[in-house]
TrEMBL record:
GO cellular component, one term: plasma membrane
Keywords, in A-Z order: Cell inner membrane, Cell membrane, Membrane, Transmembrane, Transmembrane helix
Topology within the bilayer: Multi-pass membrane protein
Primary location: membrane
Subcellular location: Cell inner membrane
Membrane-crossing residue ranges in chain numbering: 51-73, 85-106, 196-216
NCBIfam families registered for this protein in UniProt: hyp_HI0043
Similarity field: Belongs to the UPF0283 family.
Annotated protein name in UniProt: Putative membrane protein
């Protein structure tokens, strides 16, 4: 049985040519860089334990300390009973270990006190500025001078005494005392930004970028706190890290959009050439945002007479140095 030819009306776009054909789908570029490493590090750094978790940690720590103490006591007394010389040496070493632990606890307490004093100084400055209290502003300025080892600067003290307005007094303290510290803090932010961007772009391991981002940001926050007079220990550093990351997550400053990538010179081009380089740019930009937030948290005075560092300028300097170093 034969079939007759059938005709179909084809209506649609014209045939594609190599010029008009759309580009092939690239799975690597299907998702824009989103700063995965920095957002994961932020969730880790800003994490808070529940009351049950804190209770469990305290109970475990106290129980472990009790077990270690009893074991050391039994070990030293048993060794003294068997051999007086070895027992005496073990007793001396145990005493040295106890003194070292006590010194560490004292150091942590002093570091925590420095952070609290820095917070109190910031609150006193804000209160004097809000109330227009010139005398309170002078006290804050002199405390800042002592904090930065300028307490014996008679010229600065005389200039502070001559100023009558609270905002002018704090502005004088900011320009004379905080300007060099701000420059050092900005350099610390640029170093951390360059490090995170380079590791993210060049190291293809899955968790390496998250670990490096967390360690680099913790080191950067500690350095910034130390520059502003709040050198922190281990516990204080964790407190700073949680406070900075918690503030950024609460305000949505770690959200990534096209405006962030376009703010970096060449960032859009880098993300098209290689997703790893685009991810490095975004992680570096988020690290710079963390550094700026750390400056806001640790700085004893608000930015008033000195302009707050801009994210675009920090990224341009950091990534330009990175590309020069890799060239």
């Amino acid at each position: 049985m034969t079939r007759k030819p059938m005709l179909f009306d084809v209506e649609g776009p014209a045939a594609q040519t190599p010029v008009t054909a759309p580009p092939l789908h690239d799975p690597e570029d299907a998702t824009a860089p989103d700063g995965r490493a920095m957002r994961a590090a932020a969730r880790i750094g800003a994490g808070r334990w529940s009351w049950f978790g804190r209770l469990t940690a305290w109970a475990f720590g106290l129980f472990t300390s009790l077990v270690v103490t009893v074991w050391l006591w039994d070990f030293v007394t048993g060794l003294l009973a068997r051999n007086a010389a070895l027992g005496t040496a073990a007793l001396v070493l145990a005493g040295a270990l106890g003194l070292a632990l006590l010194a560490w606890l004292l150091r942590e307490a002093l570091a925590w006190r420095r952070l609290r004093n820095l917070d109190a100084l910031r609150r006193a400055a804000d209160s004097a500025l809000a109330l227009g209290d010139a005398e309170g502003a002078r006290r804050v300025a002199l405390r800042i001078a002592r904090l930065y080892h300028r307490g014996d600067d008679r010229a600065f003290a005389a200039r502070v005494a001559e100023v009558l307005d609270a905002d002018a007094v704090l502005g004088l303290a900011e320009t004379d005392l905080l300007r060099p510290v701000d420059q050092q803090a900005r350099a610390a932010i640029e170093r951390a930004t360059r490090q995170v961007a380079a590791v993210t772009a060049l190291v293809p391991l899955t968790l390496a970028d998250v670990v490096v981002a967390l360690v680099a940001n913790l080191t950067m926050i500690r350095n910034i706190a130390a520059l502003y007079g709040g050198r922190a220990g281990i516990l204080g550093s964790l407190r700073l890290l949680r406070g900075v990351f918690g503030h950024l997550l609460a305000t949505g400053a770690l959200s990534v959009g096209d405006d962030l990538i376009s703010s970096v010179a060449g960032g859009g081009l880098l993300s098209k050439v290689s997703r790893r380089f685009g991810e490095g740019v975004v992680n570096g930009a988020l690290t710079a945002r963390v550094g700026l937030a750390a400056m806001d948290v640790c700085r004893p005075l608000q930015f008033q007479m000195i302009a707050r560092p801009k994210l675009h300028d920090i990224l341009r300097r950091s990534l330009t140095g990175l590309f020069d170093a890799r060239a």
